[in-house]
Amino acid sequence: MAAQLESTMKNELPELIVLGPPAVFSVYGGKLAEKFRILKPWESSLPLEEFLSDNAKSVEALLCSTTKPVSASVLNRLPRLRLVVTTSAGLDHIDLQECRRLGIAVANAPAIFSIDVADLAVGLLIDVLRRISACNRYVKSGSWLIKGNYPLASKNELIIDGGYSWEGRGLE
């Protein structure tokens, strides 16, 4: 009886289709399963469009990443879809014009990697200005034995204009 009740309750959960799956699904899939009945097309032998036509008529939300495009073809096979969520900062893998036309909300994570990108940008800037990688190649090639020491750049050359992007704000 308890198993039947649990099965009935699970079928009453809203449906979420996960394309991909996104890398975060391995971490958060269990938590999502508590709130949604999750459809996993990657576990099916059917092509995506056929899977959607056969299984996803009542899906209201879609979770994706940049690895699987959310095209007009995908969107039009989900008649009850109200929300597309991407685990990425970018949206270029989602047909935003079709989402707008169909009244589907789209959410992303614009600042998810901004601090990491800013850190990397500063590191690369120092690398270029101080010629660290070039010096490394010089030493590894044995040129220092023939040509002598490698001249490092000035420590006083540093210009940062972060701009107004999430990454630029991370440089502040």
Automatic annotation (TrEMBL):
Source organism phylogeny: Eukaryota, Viridiplantae, Streptophyta, Embryophyta, Tracheophyta
Species of provenance: Cuscuta epithymum
Q: Does the keyword Disulfide bond apply?
A: no
Coiled coil start-end: none
Put simply, this protein is called: D-isomer specific 2-hydroxyacid dehydrogenase catalytic domain-containing protein
Domain named D-isomer specific 2-hydroxyacid dehydrogenase catalytic is located at 48-121
The UniProt keywords, alphabetically, are:
Oxidoreductase
Please name the InterPro entries in this protein's record. Answer: D-isomer_2-hydroxyacid_DH, D-isomer_2_OHA_DH_cat_dom
A single Gene Ontology MF term assigned here is:
hydroxypyruvate reductase [NAD(P)H] activity
Q: Is the keyword Oxidoreductase assigned to this protein? A: yes
A single GO CC term, please?
A: cytosol
